[in-house]
Amino acid sequence: MTNKLIGILFHPRVDEAQDLARELAAALKIRGHNVWVASAWKEQEVKDLMSGTDVVVSVGGDGTILRAARAIIPAPAPILGIRYGRLGFIAEIAPADAVKSVPSMIDAPWHLDIRGMLRARLTTHPVEPSLAEAHHPLMNGAPEFHALNDVVVSRGSLGRPIYVKVVVNGQDYFTYRADAVILSTATGSTGYSLSAGGPILHPASGCHVLTAVAAHAAMRNALVLEPSFSVQLVVRSDHGAMLSIDGQVDIPLEDQEIVDIAPSKYATRFLRATAADDFYRTVLARLRYGETPAG
Fold it and tell me: Are residues 169 and 247 in the same domain?
């Protein structure tokens, strides 16, 4: 067994999660590992602690994992999730099993489940998809966000839909009059997109799905996009709009602002108990038998 540096991130508003984080830290130290513990909400503190970290344990719901996935960028450390959430599509270990299972999984040969992420940037001019991002002048210094689940453009005022022009791979697709437009990863297809009527995508597909929320037009079917794509969401609204990253980071948008979205160069790695693919069984079980929420 090789001693490792383990980071433990916990949901700061769930007392049981904090208690379990401390208990896990003690159990891992007994095994000879070095451990640091931090709130998943303190992104900069997490980034400062990540240097040399081998594994990150997330103690909370899927929302805590989403925060962890963004906070540890650009580190390639895998995440091991302890499930406190209602549905728990991503985390697989129950709290009652954590103290026994986590040290054993970390010390055993690893089974990694790699999930793609999205990259979103704000611009005020169209971005030519044929131009390399590294050399595009509009990309220099542009705000950049990464999402494991989804990127959402939504209305900024209740009762007032927004217009969102969708450009796919440089070609005009459709202009939605809707409450929101969701672009999700395959991982995120079981989240907000699913509740809006979108399909469930297998994570290994690498595909993405574009779903409109309460669209006021005939074009209400979701659009499945290939693994390599570019999408621009052009906002038209005189009463405000909002960009949301994984439902946790909100950025106000102005009229004619453009959200440029493409696959991220980063990926989220999950440490799994086995290499077996039980995605569909897990989805069915979670949808039928939800648990107490704690994102």
Answer: yes
